[in-house]
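W.,

You were right to be curious about this one. When I first looked at the sequence I had no strong expectations either way, so I just let the prediction run and decided to look at it fresh. Below is the sequence, 150 residues in total, followed by the output.
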Amino acid sequence: MKKLQTIIFIFALLASAGQAQKPNSAGQASLFDRLGGTKGITMIVDDVVEAHMNNSAIKARFLPFKDQPERMAVIRQHTIDFFSAGSGGQVSYTGRAMTVTHKGMNISPAEYMYVVDDILLVLDKHKIDEESKKDVLAILWSLKGMIIAK
């Protein structure tokens, strides 16, 4: 169960950062819109999960859920909802808080960086603009204390 929560931890980071969620005064689109809305975020989530399952440094936390398709579907939807809500979409996230989710997981700083790297590579794959990638990175960095060694 604890390993399962790792899948959503990166996306959940977006929910607590307000700076990238809403359009700015110059009319720039929200991060949600810049990431492609629900469709784009869904594709990003799917690709990030796949990247984590193929990343030799962290895949042990993710592979067990390949054999639990019903559980994986629930986690996937929570992740999409959390990521969407946290990036400015009109979506409700009903999952647990990040500190609760990661309690007892003892995620190392190195594991966290592998996850961040996977996310940035997926954003590149989806041709997400540099400003949006910086917004995502700033959010990830600001929340790492809620995730590491909890």
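Here's what jumped out at me. The chain is about 60% helix and 0% strand. And, maybe more interesting for your project: The two ends are 15 Å apart (CA to CA).

Coffee later to discuss?

I.
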